[in-house]
Specification:
This protein is α/β, with parallel strands linked by helices. It folds into 2 domains: 3-222, Alpha-Beta Complex (Spore Coat Polysaccharide Biosynthesis Protein SpsA, Chain A); 228-419, UDP N-Acetylglucosamine Acyltransferase, domain 1 (3 Solenoid), CATH 2.160.10.10. It has 8 helices and 33 strands. The longest helix is centred in the middle third of the chain and has 21 residues, at 228-248. The mean pLDDT is 94.
């Protein structure tokens, strides 16, 4: 059994009212179109063709760069039947079945497609995916015949729509490749929109002695995204499902509805996620780590028994080993923090490597950018960096060293050294009192 896949993604998406093509909006940090591409990969599709329009061709190709897909262009929006006809010409491999997906329907499951394939293997040539809608919608309706056969799919505003079965058509179709390639040529556009409806293939199949049926799934699996409102509904479903999966795996969340995750977020059991935490793409967290409230984590890998936040920001290419602490209002970017190292508050660590058991005092800044280039700071093991220090890269601080509070360090510090770089303090006896008295007189003058 072999399957090739067509993903229809040429729609203009005008209801999104956005300069971004509809299929390049994201759910859980993942492009809408990527859901269909990944599903095709999961079912081991022999070939995957994405049908795009002139307006979204280049952007879609860039978004799917590196994916094993082919593209074809539907230059005129003449309907789903026309799009499939164009795509079928692009296949090089003659698979037994052709699967037709949509670029704006992200939640179709692998198991659902497998059910459709099982139906096809019993002898049906066309298998559509339907769902029971809770509310009225504009989807096509199934006209069901004896023994679960599908006699017709009636589109909205077409005759008989109000009398059809209440199962709605998702648009997803699995078809015998040789037969759809023949019948797709026979679809006409004699309807109210003047479009070539893919659903007309059901009646054509019956006319030429081929059988059609359907598989039913839950309505929320067939959620389509055509507007910003529908995008938010899809995002909510994604987040709800992801939270449930994490909690079922042993991740604790006190207020799960306030936490947001990306499609590739990995969090091991025993972790605790406090309220109001956001996980952008590329985050991996090992077991028994605590992420405190109002933290934002992106592209970071975090070890076991770490404590992050509250109000921490971890940026891409951050790597935290076991038992690391990154506290409130600390930002870390492109840096490695070794075991038991801590930066508990009010610091920026960028383009650096910190050895084990090192302490970064409050207000410390890793000065990694000279206005043109980024530079690296290498801090050894068991180093103590005092509060309000500025470490001016490129810089190396040896093991067991101390950087005095308030220092601006721009030269390497040997191991077990004390580095001090600040102006000599001078105490002018009595001057402070005179200044305060003068300031008080000025203030009193303005009060009159």
């Amino acid at each position: 059994m072999t399957v090739s896949t067509i993903i229809l993604a040429a729609g203009k998406g005008t209801r999104m009212k956005s300069p971004t093509p509809k299929i390049l909006h994201k759910i859980g940090g993942k492009y809408l179109i990527s859901f269909g591409v990944d599903l095709a990969k999961a079912i081991k599709s022999k070939e995957t063709i994405v049908v795009v329009g002139d307006e979204n061709e280049q952007a879609t190709k860039e978004a799917l760069s590196g994916k094993k897909v082919k593209f074809c262009i539907q230059r005129s929006q003449l309907g789903t039947g026309d799009a499939v006809k164009i795509a079928l010409k692009g296949f090089n491999i003659k698979s037994k079945y052709t699967l037709i997906l949509y670029g704006d329907t992200p939640f179709i499951k692998n198991n659902t497609i497998k059910k459709m394939i099982i139906k096809a293997e019993t002898g049906f040539e066309f298998i559509f995916l339907g769902f029971q809608a809770k509310k009225k919608n504009s989807y096509g309706k199934f006209k069901i015949g004896p023994k679960g056969t599908l006699m017709d799919i009636i589109e909205k505003n077409e005759p008989g729509y109000n009398f059809a079965n209440n199962l709605s058509n998702s648009g997803i179709l699995l078809a015998r490749s040789s037969i759809i390639a023949d019948l797709i040529q026979k679809i006409k556009n004699n309807n109210s929109k003047g479009e070539y409806y893919l659903t007309d293939i059901v009646k054509l199949a019956a006319k030429y002695g081929h059988s059609s049926t359907y598989v039913q799934c839950k309505e929320d699996e067939c959620i389509g995204v055509n507007s910003q409102s529908e995008l938010s509904i899809a995002e909510k479903k994604f987040q709800d499902d992801f939270r449930e999966k994490l909690m079922a795996s042993g991740v604790s969340m006190q207020s799960p509805e306030t936490c947001f995750f990306s499609f590739d977020t990995t969090i091991k059991s025993g972790c605790v996620i406090e309220p109001y935490v956001i996980f952008d793409v590329g985050v991996k967290i090992q077991s028994s780590t605590v992420i405190k409230s109002y933290s934002y984590i992106q592209g970071a890998h975090i070890g076991q028994f770490c404590q992050i936040g509250p109000f921490a920001r971890l940026r891409p290419s951050t790597r935290l080993s076991n038992e690391v602490k990154v506290g409130n209002f600390v930002e870390v970017k492109n840096s490695i923090l070794s075991p038991k190292t801590k930066a508990n508050h009010l610091s920026y660590i960028g383009d650096a490597k910190l050895g084990k058991n090192t302490n970064v005092g409050a207000g410390t800044i890793f000065c990694n950018y000279d206005g043109k280039n980024k530079h690296f700071t290498d801090v050894g093991d068991n180093v103590f960096i005092g509060s309000n220090a500025s470490l001016i890269a490129p810089l190396k601080i040896g093991d067991g060293s101390i950087v005095a509070a308030g220092s601006a360090i721009n030269r390497d510090v040997p191991s077990e050294s004390l580095a001090i770089s600040r102006p000599l303090q001078q105490n002018k006896i009595g001057i402070g009192g005179k200044i305060m008295l003068k300031l008080q007189k000025v203030a009193d003058k303005f009060k009159r």
